[in-house]
Each structure stands twice: as C-alpha cells, then as structure tokens.
Amino acid sequence: MKTQENLFSPIKSKGIFEEVSSNIKRLIFDGVLKPGDRLPSEIELANQFSVGRQTIREALRILELSGFITVQKGGSGGPLIKDTIINTISDLFLDAFRMEKISIEELTIARLEIEKMVLNHVMDNLTDLDIEALEQNVAAAREKIEGNMMANEENIEFHNLLAKASKNHVFVIVVGSIAAVLRNLLSRLSPGVGTAGDPGGYDKSILMSGNAVRYHEEILSAIIEKRRDAAMELLEQHLIEVSHRIKTLID
Amino acid sequence: MKTQENLFSPIKSKGIFEEVSSNIKRLIFDGVLKPGDRLPSEIELANQFSVGRQTIREALRILELSGFITVQKGGSGGPLIKDTIINTISDLFLDAFRMEKISIEELTIARLEIEKMVLNHVMDNLTDLDIEALEQNVAAAREKIEGNMMANEENIEFHNLLAKASKNHVFVIVVGSIAAVLRNLLSRLSPGVGTAGDPGGYDKSILMSGNAVRYHEEILSAIIEKRRDAAMELLEQHLIEVSHRIKTLID
DNA sequence: TCACATTTGTCCGTATGTATC
DNA sequence: AGATACATACGGACAAATGTG
Prior knowledge:
homodimer, 251 residues, mainly alpha, Arc Repressor Mutant, subunit A, Four Helix Bundle (Hemerythrin (Met), subunit A), 2 domains, 10 helices, DNA-binding
C-alpha cells in the first residue's frame, strides 16, 4: 500500500529514454530550443547522448506524443521543435470521450452549455483581431456555399475562433475537443463530407451547411453590436438545430 | 498537394507502429480489451503482428503515453490495459503551464464557470444515490480532518462526485481533468501533502483542508435542501478561496 | 535467502522506404 | 534522374529488473 509518488525528481525513474526526453524537454522549457529549431538526427543524438538509436527513437516518440516536436521523414528531415501541446490535449480528450461512449444527447447538452458560457466571456474580452478573424471565417464559408460546396471545416472553425476570443485557453481546448468529436461523428455519418470539392454533396447537406453559415453571420453581428442576449439566443437556436441535424443523420 | 485525408481507414498513412497501436486502440474502444486485461509480451506481439520487436515497442509507447496501458518490467510483467487518460491529460496541462500556454488564472476562471454550470445540472438531476455518495465523501473527509490528517484526495473527489451527479459524461471528464491538474499542482507545491499519515503536515495546510470540508458540507446541505442560489454562492466562494490558496503557495 | 525464468530495456548491424537537392 | 540524408524497420544479442519457487 505504499503508493508513494515521487513527484520531485520524476527523472531517473524508468530508464534512459525518459531521461533523454526530460533533458530535451528542459532545454525547450528554458528557451534554449525554440519552435522552428531543428534537432540533430537520431544518429547524431545517439552519439551526443552516448546511447543507442532505439533509445533516442523512444525518447523522440515521447516528445512527439507530448506535443513538443514533430518528426519528418526523408532528406533534410528529422525532429523539429514545434509547440502542439494544445492539439495533443484535444486529441486525448477525444480519446477520453470515446472511452466513455458519450451519447449524442450528452455531447450536445454539454456543448450548448459550454459555448453559451464561452460566449459570455467573448462579449467581455473581444478585440478587433478576433472580429477580423471571425469575419474572415464567415466570408470564406459564404464563398464556399455560393460555389455549391460544403463549408463544414469553416463552420467548425467558427466555434474554435469564438473560443479563442474568450482569451481562455482552457475553453479553447474544451470547445476544440467537443468540436473534434462532432466532426468525427459527422464524418462517419455522412462520408466524404469533409473532403474538399466533394462532387456528391449536392443534397440537403449543403442547405444545412449554408444555414449554419447564416446563423454564424447573425451571431457575429450580434456580438459586434454588443447585443448579448440576442447573440446568446441565436447561438442556442443554432446549436439546437445542429443537434437535430445530427439526430436525423443517425436515424 | 494531394493531401487527401481518408477518414475511413486512417491506417497505412504513417507507419507500421502507428497501425499496430491503432489496432490495439480499436480493440480497447470496442470493449474487446478491458482495463485489467494483460497484453502478450513484446516478443509475442511481434510474432502475432509479424513485425519486429522495435515496432511493437514504439506502438506500446504510444499507447502508454496516450493513457491506455502501463508497462511493468520483470517476471509476470508486461503491458497492462489501464485507463489513465485523465492523468495523462493533467500531465500535459502541467507542460502547458510550464510552456506558459495556460495560466493559473485561466484555469481557475474556467473551473469556476464550469463547476457552476455543472452544479446547475446537478440540482435538476440529483438522485438518492448521488446524495449518499456525497455524504459518504464528506464524512470520510471530516474523519480525516478530526484525526489531524489532510483530506485532499477526498476533497478533490467531492467535485468529481458532483460532476457525476450531473449525469453528463462530458462534464465528468472535463471536471476530472481540471481536478487532476490542481491535485498535481498542489502535490508539487506542498510536497508530501497527498501521502497518507504524513507526520509533517501539522500546519496551516490542514486548516485549509478542513475549511474546504466545511464548505463541502454546506454546499451539500444546500443541494439537498434544493437551495440553488445558496449552493451556487457557496461553491463560488469555495473555489475562489481555493484559487487564493494556490496563488499564495506559488509566491 | 537464493537461484531461476520471464519480460522490459538497451545496443549493434543492416536493410529499406522516403523526401530533398 | 541520381545522389544524399534521414526515419523506419528487421534480427540478434546482452543487461537489468522483477516476480516466483
């Protein structure tokens, strides 16, 4: 029963590969290595640390799955410092949702509540840059709709941009994760929807997508004009409609 | 430029080790493999998948860092299915803190908003079983406090039980993740606090812990008596006080 | 207490696939 | 198209750790 978790020096605990990844992590935390910098190749790292290549590979795998680096194959490739922690956290939330077998009802209820909460924060922290990004998003979405194309990616991004405008990264992660789950569900229910230039999507799906864009435009207007209650009401209507759309797809 | 993302069979895209980990992941999602089950040894897996042992190792490393398995060395050891996604998320949150992607302020604001939202749902969906679990929790916490021991685990669990009482798994995961981050932070800031029977904890930390228990008791009473506004007010006071406690620990 | 078997951890050598120049 | 550089993958070997008899 002595489950003493030694939190002070988590290094040295498991093996060399963890120590190597911790060392590189520390360099990133201390600012010695910044996003965009290149790490030496595996062979080079193996020589510098005086360890085997497999050990380096597992250390790099840790860093990759922790969102600190990406690895590119081929010539002039190799490990690249890149900050993707937020995305990594979102991925794990997605896994957690899938493990718990979340129902559509639960997800839509939670989404509705959380996004309303986020919107409240947006109204208090909105900047011109946020407005610009949101306007750009709905413009791009409208353009696609007018070209008879789905605008699903843009529509999902609208909600992510809204979360960003709340100036709270926790909200960004949570909203982004829920959006990822929904996108996952939609792509399973109506295949080919997310792909660009899908020639088979000339059905009511485009109408729904266009409808969402109109809602986004109205919500954005209400936000800009500081009409808080109207924005909340529109958001609620929009999300309820989306949930209905998903339900009809399931049947 | 042919970046066609095939959402139906994302396998074969990156490499063999990702395909292996995806296969095992799928088995876990589908319930074929459940927490507590043992995976074959690395050599056995290598034979069954007809791949090298190094490939298996990297696949297992992915699963470990994604919170799906743990790996034990030695005789009768090996890969063990275990759901630790929430802990993994909290670890990444800590990394995000260190990378200054998330601040304590953001986290406490998000926690306050989310738990208030959850409490509202709890008031509408409370059952006798939830009440029983919550009462048992505060009773256990009080017992520890009266024995001059910290009740941090119980106090954190109180909030998780609250989330469960909302009957929404999304809330459970979000609240659980935030709680895990806070527990992780607290254990780093005030070492030895989480361990049972810590003889060095006879300081103001126990007072704070006891204070939290009192708040929990009052909140629970308000919930049972359907005093919604009072419960919300108490919860808000409680969480603000906790955030102050964390801030003072950081300075 | 002491081997013993099992399993992960680590290293080496080599070959292949892949992206860049 | 060819050369180069790099990750990816295979097989074999030994060391270290851990539970079991």
